[in-house]
């Protein structure tokens, strides 16, 4: 601090000499570890810019704020009416590598991951060094990332001691409480490396955990609160690690759990019996009386009524006995914060006052709301968009500079940017600015949107096929999408060129066109399609979109099997199709690839018209609605998805509905367990010929196993028929089963095993496996 003061004081002596002079050169001396170009990048003063003492003062502060420097001096030289600046620095050693020796039970990669150490030295981010902003993958990880050690930076003695203690903690968690860790710094020109020497010692493990005195909660419920686990041979947990430190944390977790459930006088103790490496744990509980929640008052609220602020949390608590539960209080406080944040009061403060009556065993709570002043957005900064142009991001934001910092708008902005499909992760982080203002930092992690794919694909309609696909989302950083695919198989061909102009004419309009050439060989016939389509769609309000499109196609049916039904034989030959398409949709899904909340409703209408050589005449209507609900009550990770579909197609002018415009119910995307179209109308050869009406219901419950891995159970039911009178529940088909879902950057991958509720002619197997790339709901 003294060095900083002296450095700044010395600058004051220059004031009389600075009269709009230009900086001709900036030189750096004394830097052994930090590159000169990085130092210059940190400086606000640049060569060719006007000399400013204020800027130099800020430069010194910026350099010191990186933590790289022990001493900084700035010397000024006046030469030919210009200024030459010399920065003399003394930088600290930089750690470029960390190694481990003596570790046997945990390999280097495990230790590095648990420590949170970056394995490679990445490019220095000046903004991150100076402001503390970081392009971290998630805002909830921010506090954890602050404790991570980054290579390629200066490591203080405090940082190294933190790593030593963290390694010991990791070993304690793995059942090696006596592990010893020392370190040495191995110097190298320009940088250094740290070697941690580890002596693991003997492993200690848990056999039994026994609870005594727990009357209200089962031992299983209490064990679920603990990191310490007992032996379980059925799941091959033979030697679960023992750590005294972890056990003490578990005891505190149990104590907090009891207090949060109203047992304010609970007493908990434990005893550990040791024999060699074996440990038996005994936990003794005196629950004591359970306190009731007498009343909850809220004061200071002027914008919302009491009933709005407490929601249904108190009523739920009364139905569960009316006991004092800290979680209920925190839920209400969170609800108050959310409500006020939705009207721009982001700095709201809630003071909690608790009054305990030991005689009556009651608790009274007062929440005093300090509403404060509305918060406005000062600046919106965007980071991580190395390919995407800024305007592509800003046009999706629902909070803008100088507007209220509304929480709902921030949340919606994140969903809209994420649903562009160009980013692996999007975080919008607020940072306090001046007075009642915030800066918003939009942190992006771009995914590779250019795809060149060569491979094999399979589904129940196209069978096995090879493909070459080139797709460029976010074309030239504009958000547009360019696609070219060439797919060939023994029974399938699909060549398509498409382009989507996002925000056509700088308005929320998408203009999409495609040219295609397709062929599919079914069991009894082959259909070929060549054509062009164009769609013009516009977003309105916030969640709504309408679309108007046209399609011009040439369709050919050939290779009709002699045994095919008369209806299929009637399709033989070529025909021209001219269709107009209109759709209206409302979409509130949080994430298109795998929604966890929100809904999607789409009404589509198409009409084939006999113009410009068209020969088809029909109307086609389809209504689809999906709803997604995640478990927020228990926060279990379960997501319930429901979907309903109803549709009909009718001819006019005495024509028949073409085979390819009918509804094929059954298969990967309708009713699982059945082959394609086999839950609808079939001909005398037990081949699906589509139906003119459909009604389908789908239910699915998924559970999150990992960040992008889900497992689920499902039930599908419905029917395809040619008359509404056939939709008697006894005629409905159904399928149920289990599956897994992989969420990839391109699309979800689904693998389902489904059993049908009714066998049908031509599809008599009891179950079927469905492998699909793409979403179901």
Describe the structure.
There is one protein chain. With 777 residues, the chain is an alpha+beta fold. The protein has six domains: 2-91, Roll (Ubiquitin-like (UB roll)); 94-199, Ubiquitin-like (UB roll) (Roll); 205-286, membrane protein fhac (Ubiquitin-like (UB roll), Roll), CATH 3.10.20; 292-370, Ubiquitin-like (UB roll) (Roll); 376-446, Roll (Ubiquitin-like (UB roll)), CATH 3.10.20.310; 522-773, Beta Barrel (Porin), CATH 2.40.160. A hairpin with a 6-residue loop joins β20 (492-502) and β21. Mean pLDDT is 84; it is low at 11-18, 119-124, 128-148 and 451-456. It is found in: Membrane.
Give the N-to-C terminal Cα separation.
60 Å
Number of helices: 15
The percent range for helix content is: 10-25%
Low-confidence stretches: 11-18, 119-124, 128-148, 451-456
Give the class-level CATH name of the largest domain.
Mainly Beta
Strand residue percentage: 35-45%
CATH-scheme architecture of the largest domain: Beta Barrel
Gyration radius over CA: 33 Å
Structural class by secondary-structure content: alpha+beta
Mean pLDDT: 84
Per the CATH scheme, the topology name of the largest domain is Porin
Main-sheet strand order equals 17-18-19-20-21-22-23-24-25-26-27-28-29-30-31-32
User: How many distinct beta strands?
Assistant: 32
Give a short account of the largest sheet. Answer: 16 strands, antiparallel
Q: Domains counted in the coordinates: how many?
A: 6
Which overall shape is indicated by the principal axes computed on the Cα atoms? Answer: globular
At the fourth level of CATH, the homologous superfamily of the largest domain is membrane protein fhac: a member of the omp85/tpsb transporter family
Organism: Hydrogenivirga caldilitoris
Subcellular location: Membrane
Domain POTRA: 21-92, 204-288, 375-447
GO biological process, one term: membrane assembly
């Amino acid at each position: 601090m003294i060095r900083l003061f002296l450095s700044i004081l010395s600058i004051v002596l220059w004031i009389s000499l600075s009269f709009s002079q230009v900086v001709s050169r900036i030189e750096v001396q004394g830097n052994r570890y930090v590159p000169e170009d990085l130092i210059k990048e940190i400086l606000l003063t640049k060569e060719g810019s006007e000399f400013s003492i204020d800027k130099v003062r800020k430069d010194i502060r910026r350099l010191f704020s990186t933590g790289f420097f022990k001493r900084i001096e700035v010397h000024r030289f006046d030469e030919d009416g210009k200024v030459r600046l010399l920065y003399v620095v003394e930088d600290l050693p930089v750690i470029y590598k960390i190694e481990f020796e003596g570790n046997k039970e945990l390999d280097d990669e495990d230790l590095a991951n648990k420590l949170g150490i970056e394995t490679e030295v990445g490019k220095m981010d000046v903004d991150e060094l100076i402001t503390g902003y970081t392009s971290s993958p998630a805002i909830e990880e921010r506090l954890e990332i602050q404790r991570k050690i980054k290579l390629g930076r200066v490591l203080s003695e405090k940082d190294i001691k933190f790593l030593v203690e963290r390694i010991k903690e990791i070993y304690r968690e793995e059942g090696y409480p006596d592990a010893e860790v020392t370190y040495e710094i191995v110097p190298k020109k320009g940088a250094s490396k740290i070697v941690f020497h580890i002596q693991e010692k003997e492993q200690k493990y848990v056999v039994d955990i026994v609870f005594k005195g727990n009357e209200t909660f089962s031992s299983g419920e209490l064990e679920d609160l603990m990191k310490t686990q007992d032996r379980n041979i059925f799941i091959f947990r033979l030697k679960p690690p023992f750590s005294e430190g972890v056990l003490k944390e578990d005891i505190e977790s149990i104590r907090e759990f009891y207090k949060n459930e109203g047992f304010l006088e609970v007493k908990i103790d434990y005893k550990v019996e040791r024999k060699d490496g074996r440990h038996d744990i005994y936990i003794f509980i005196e629950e004591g009386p359970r306190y009731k929640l007498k009343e909850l008052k809220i004061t200071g609220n002027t914008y919302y009524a009491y009933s709005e602020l407490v929601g249904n949390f108190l009523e739920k608590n009364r139905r569960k006995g009316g006991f004092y539960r800290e979680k209920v209080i925190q839920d209400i406080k969170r609800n108050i914060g959310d409500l006020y944040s939705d009207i721009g009061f982001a700095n709201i403060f809630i003071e909690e006052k608790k009054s305990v009556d030991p005689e009556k065993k009651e608790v009274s709570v007062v929440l005093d709301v300090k509403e404060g002043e509305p918060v406005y957005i000062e600046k919106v900064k965007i980071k991580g968009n190395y390919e995407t142009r800024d305007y592509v991001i800003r046009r999706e934001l629902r909070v803008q500079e100088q507007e209220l910092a509304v929480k709902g708008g921030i949340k919606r902005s994140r969903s809209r940017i994420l649903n562009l499909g160009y980013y692996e992760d999007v975080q919008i982080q607020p940072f306090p600015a001046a007075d009642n203002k915030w800066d918003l930092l939009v942190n992006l992690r771009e995914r590779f949107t250019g795809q060149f794919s060569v491979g094999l694909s399979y589904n129940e309609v196209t069978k096995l096929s090879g493909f070459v696909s080139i797709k460029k989302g976010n074309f030239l950083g504009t958000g547009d999408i360019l696609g070219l695919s060439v797919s060939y198989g023994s029974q399938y061909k699909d060549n398509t060129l498409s382009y989507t102009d996002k925000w056509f004419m700088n308005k929320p309009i998408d203009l999409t066109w495609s040219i295609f050439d397709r062929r599919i060989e079914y069991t009894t016939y082959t259909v070929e399609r060549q054509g062009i389509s164009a769609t013009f769609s516009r977003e309105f309000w916030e969640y709504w979109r309408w679309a108007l499109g046209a399609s011009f196609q040439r369709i050919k049916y050939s290779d009709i099997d002699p045994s095919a039904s008369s209806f299929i034989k009637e399709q033989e030959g070529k025909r021209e199709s001219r269709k107009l398409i209109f759709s209206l949709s409302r979409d509130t899904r949080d994430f298109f690839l795998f929604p966890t909340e929100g809904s999607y409703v789409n009404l589509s209408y198409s009409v084939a018209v006999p113009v410009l050589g068209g020969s088809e005449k029909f109307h086609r209507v389809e209504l689809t609605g999906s709803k997604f609900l995640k478990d927020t009550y228990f926060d279990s990770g379960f997501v319930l998805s429901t979907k309903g579909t109803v549709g009909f197609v009718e001819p006019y002018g005495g024509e028949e509905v073409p085979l390819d415009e009918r509804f094929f119910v059954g298969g990967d995307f309708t009713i699982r367990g059945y082959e394609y179209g086999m839950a609808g109308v079939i001909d005398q050869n037990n081949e699906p010929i589509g139906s003119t009406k459909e009604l389908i219901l789908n239910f699915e419950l998924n559970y999150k196993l990992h960040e992008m891995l889900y497992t689920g159970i499902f039930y599908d039911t419905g029917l395809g028929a040619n008359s509404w009178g056939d939709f008697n529940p006894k005629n409905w088909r159904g399928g149920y089963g289990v599956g897994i879902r992989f969420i990839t950057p391109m699309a979800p991958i689904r693998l389902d095993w489904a059993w049908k509720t009714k066998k049908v002619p031509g599809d008599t197997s009891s179950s079927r496996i469905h492998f699909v790339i793409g979403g179901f709901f």
